[in-house]
Design goal:
The protein contains three helices and 32 strands. It is mostly beta strands.
Length: 363
């Protein structure tokens, strides 16, 4: 059983490096030997344990140690070099996301491309639905877990502007900070994960598939080994950076007319929970009504349409029509004129936009 870990720094400036680490940077000595002429010292602090070893200059192996702080004076100096060459770099303890400029580009992602799948966090398989990521502003992923049962996940959170998860098929059991006991999401259900809410995936059905959409594309996922879930208190209305957790259950939902003629949608409640920042809906054709004869457009920051059941013909102005089948997805830049025709009777489209509401032009 491993009891501890140490980062070894071999230095020809042992005495000076040890003094700087303890006197200037607040690390404490845990061990030092031999007493008459120390050649090894173990120091710890700020979540790190270092082992200094006295060596000749030819055997020196300096390291880089990041010190996390919100002290403006320390951050302004960027880094400090120890006598033996080790660099102490100051990095912000409190970080958030960086929001890149939006660079929209029409993108079509096909579900039947085996090369598009790769292995990501916790052994999950990922397919990028917006490969260009619109300049790094958005990410949309089709995620699959082939094996059912317990998921090797851990309590974690994301430093993001917006993030949602939609269950395409199967079921998954999760637990969220301040949202009560673990619960099961079935196909068609979705959640809004507000910024930095702690959560964990516990178990799932074989072949679970979800669609996850977030902003920005590059954001930090951080483990939180100190927080135990479920939380001791239930706080369903807790504010997370201006957003609330939402769990939308598909069963029994009501439908309203969608922006394209002949379709209706069920709303997830994400628009209200984000203060209008983003919206998520599931659209389907209305029995007996004609669909898609008119072109529509809207000046959205982001729009993603993913076929989560059945199929439909998608056409944008000036381009050939394409058949979208189960799992296919398009990212539609604002201002694009498009239409959706010939849906199958069981067609369903996950429609995610920023913002939640916007004017729609039809012609």
């Amino acid at each position: 059983m491993i009891e501890a870990a140490q980062v070894v720094i071999r230095t020809d400036q042992f005495d000076a490096d040890l003094a700087a680490l303890t006197d200037q940077f607040g690390l404490r000595v845990d061990a030092i030997f031999p007493a008459d002429h120390p050649s090894v010292a173990v120091v710890s602090g700020h979540g790190v344990r270092l082992r200094l070893e006295r060596v000749d200059a030819t055997e020196s192996t300096p390291a880089v140690v990041d010190l996390l702080t919100d002290d403006a004076n320390a951050l302004s100096s960027a880094s400090v070099g120890l006598s033996g060459g080790t660099q102490l770099r100051f990095r912000p303890f409190t970080t958030t996301y960086t929001l890149p400029d939006n660079d929209p580009e029409f993108m079509l992602s096909r579900n039947n491309d085996p090369a598009a799948w790769g292995v990501g966090r916790a052994g999950m398989r990922y397919r990028d639905l917006v490969p260009g990521r619109w300049g790094g502003r958005f990410i949309a992923s089709h995620i699959m877990i082939a094996e059912g049962g317990p998921v090797p996940d851990y309590v974690h959170f994301h430093k993001i502007r917006f993030q949602m998860i939609f269950v395409k098929s199967g079921w998954v059991r999760l637990v969220y900070e301040d949202q009560g006991a673990p619960f099961v999401m079935q196909a068609g259900d979705c959640v809004l994960q507000p910024p930095e809410i702690r959560h964990r995936v516990l178990e799932c059905s074989p072949g679970l598939e979800v669609v996850e959409i977030g902003c920005p594309a590059d954001h930090e996922t951080a483990a939180d080994h100190r927080t135990a879930l479920p939380s001791p208190k239930f706080k369903p209305d807790r504010d997370f950076s201006g957003q609330r957790f939402v769990r939308h259950v598909a069963a029994g939902s009501t439908h309203l007319p969608w922006r394209a003629a002949g379709y209706e949608y069920r709303d997830s409640g994400i628009g209200d929970a984000t203060g209008g920042l983003a919206g998520a809906r599931v659209a389907r054709p209305v029995d007996g009504e004609p669909t898609g004869s008119a072109w529509i457009s809207h000046d959205t920051e982001f729009c993603s349409l993913t076929v989560v059941a059945g199929g439909v013909i998608f056409q944008r102005a000036g381009a050939a029509a394409v058949e979208l089948r189960d799992g296919d997805s398009v990212a539609v830049p604002g201002g694009t004129r498009y239409r959706l025709t010939e849906p199958t009777s069981d067609a369903e489209l996950l429609d995610v936009t920023l913002p939640a509401t916007f004017p729609v032009r039809s012609d």
